[in-house]
Design brief:
By secondary structure, the chain is an all-alpha fold. The protein has a single domain (about 15-70, about 80-150), classed as Four Helix Bundle (Hemerythrin (Met), subunit A). The protein has helices at about 15-30, 40-65, 95-110, 110-150.
Amino acid sequence: MRSGFGLELKIPPLLLALLFAFMMWLLAHVSAGFVLPKNVAGMASAVLAVSGLLSIAVAALSFRKAGTTVNPVAPETSSALVSNRVYRFTRNPMYLGMLLLLLAWGIYLANALSIALCVGFILYMNRFQIEPEERALTIIFGDAYRAYLDKVRRWL
């Protein structure tokens, strides 16, 4: 299941999101920020953060209800293909939720470089987390998962 790259499925996504949040904070403290009216920044951050948390919660509850694993470093232990609720709109609502939380953090920090770092999160997640998961799920669920891949986007 794992390739020779060594990073695939090794860093839990939550830890990765926390590392990116820390790097965003560092960037915000060593580079110039931008000015947003406090009410705009606060509202945008709050909306993104609540949306991210809801996405993660609904996705995790959907997995629990289906009786399958939420462990992102062991997709081979998946026992059910979940394609309802939030999974009708995105194949990765937990990762999307983490991205929304990072965007909320970047807006709160009022730093363009911090927000731009979110692109790095997406690129890393695609290559080292999502693609290996998709390979594993294709092996486990076959044509049903291939049909799901054709129907639902990876992020949005």
